[in-house]
Structures are given as structure tokens and as C-alpha cells.
Amino acid sequence: MDYRNQYKLKRYKKTDNMTAISCKIMNDSEFPPVNFKDEEVTVLSDNNGNSVHVIEYDGYYLAKKAIEKGRIPDPRSNIPDIIKMEIRPDDVFLVAYPKAGTHWTWEVTSMLMQDGKEQNLSKEVAMLPFVTPEKIDELPSPRLMNSHCYFKHLPQEILKKKNKIIFVNRNPKDVAVSFYHHCQHVANYKGTFSQFLDFFMSERVYHCAWYKYMLDWERVFKQHPELPVMYVNYEDLHKEPMREIDRIATFLGVRKSEEFYSKISKKCSFSELKQSYKKRNNMEFMFRKGAVGDWKNWFTVTDNERFDNYLKEKIPNPFVKFTFCI
Hints:
The chain contains 15 helices and 8 strands. The protein is of the alpha/beta class.
């Protein structure tokens, strides 16, 4: 029996309830609530004393509040389980720093993998480490998993099975702006944007430091050239959506007609996705503007000079391109 069909047949009854599962993961208690002792909580602060309370596992930080309420599992037990979890040969991994375009690329890629079918669930049902290996195992093949984690916190069977990896990149100035708004919502950050920028450029940030994330994946790709990797630039997806959709389809081995790509491009437009997420799981806050170059509305001249110096120091020779306006 075909491997992919085996999983479809085995698990099809569970997929009927995937939409409900998607909503439950992000809005209700899906996992055991945790009561943390003070010494278990890490406080990340900017230079002005604005702080977020997180739980750390091996240099990776998740919101204490979300874990306490059972919205996401405790990373201290879940990430070790993820590292050793069994994966399938046709699993695809979409990886990106937070607010680099993960949701958008996930929707496009999901539709390509599902022959153009619209999604009734959100990427959170397959997001590591926001779900457990047991929950991931309920999903039918082909699975598109996504993560903001370092490579070391993902299933290490990737190296053995050589799963396809899509790396999404966005210019870091727009990432910083979008991440600022995101942290206000999910991590209760109270500072100004300029204060957040200090936080963003520091060594310890909610999730992880941007530059450390980029350097980590650069190292992985250089050390393992045998891994099939595709780079998707957020700005290119804005500028040439049809071309980029075809590139993704080619990488996945599912090339279709221009009419097919046009349908996906329309269904995955920013306005369509924002409304779609509101209907699916009341998570439209994940979609703010989706613009390229919005950083110009937030960075002062001083902010921009500081950030340019930060880039020169931390990422002097980036392995991906940064497009700051189109």
C-alpha cells in the first residue's frame, strides 16, 4: 500500500474534527495547565524595564501565560519529545522567524499540497512546539509542519529522511515592526517601538534572537547540503506571486496551470486570509498589514542607524537577501 494513502486511510476520521481542534488549541485549554514557581519563570526585559514573562527551554522562550492556561504545551517536556519524534518521508517543514511570513507561505503551500483545496484549519495545528507529537501524528499525509524554532529543537529524523524544507525570509526591519505588535498581543509587552527595538536587538528575546536564528539555520544548511531546501522571500511573494507560487509548486513536485496558481493567489491574498482566519479561529490579529516597507513609518533616523549597525555587526554576510522596499 502507498505510504501516503496508508496514513490517509488510517486517520481520515480524525481529520473531520481538525477545524474544532484548531480553534481549541489557540483559544481554550487543550493541554494540561501548569502552575509555575517563581524560579521557573524567566523575565526578559528591555533597557527601559518593560518585560515579558516566559518559560525557557535551551535558549528558546515561550509565553508563560499561554502555557499556564493550557493553550500550548510546556516546552521543557514537549521540545525533547519533538526532537526524537518519528516523522514521515513526505513531511514538509516550513521554517521562519516569527512574523517573517509563515502564515502566508503556509496557506499557499498547503493549497498546493492539497490540490487547491481551501483550508478549514490554521497552521497552528501543525506548529512545533505549539502542539505535541501525539497531535501531529493525528494529521493525515501529506503534512506541512511549521516552526519558529532552532533546528536543534525540531525532529532530528529530518537529517535521516531528508525532508523538504522551505525557509521563509523577510527583511528584518519589517519583521521587527510586525513582531512588536505581535508581542503586545501575545506577550503583553508595554513599551514603545523604539524601546522594543532595543529588545529585538538584544541577546534574549521572546522566542529567540533574530540574528541567532538566522545564523543557526545558515550553519545547518552549510553543514548539510544534502537537505532539499527552498528559500522564499516575503517581498518576492508580494511582488511576483504567480512566479513564487510556481517556484514552490516546482519544489514540491506539484506544478499546475497558471489558472490554478491564480486561484491560489487570490485565495491567499492578505484581505482574504485575514477574513478567513477570523472565521476559522478568531485569530485575525495575526494579520496586521502585510506590507513591505512599513518599517519606514516606525523607525526614526536614529533607530535606523542603530539597526543598520546591528546588521553589520551580527550578520555581515547574510546567506539570504534582504529587500527593504519594493
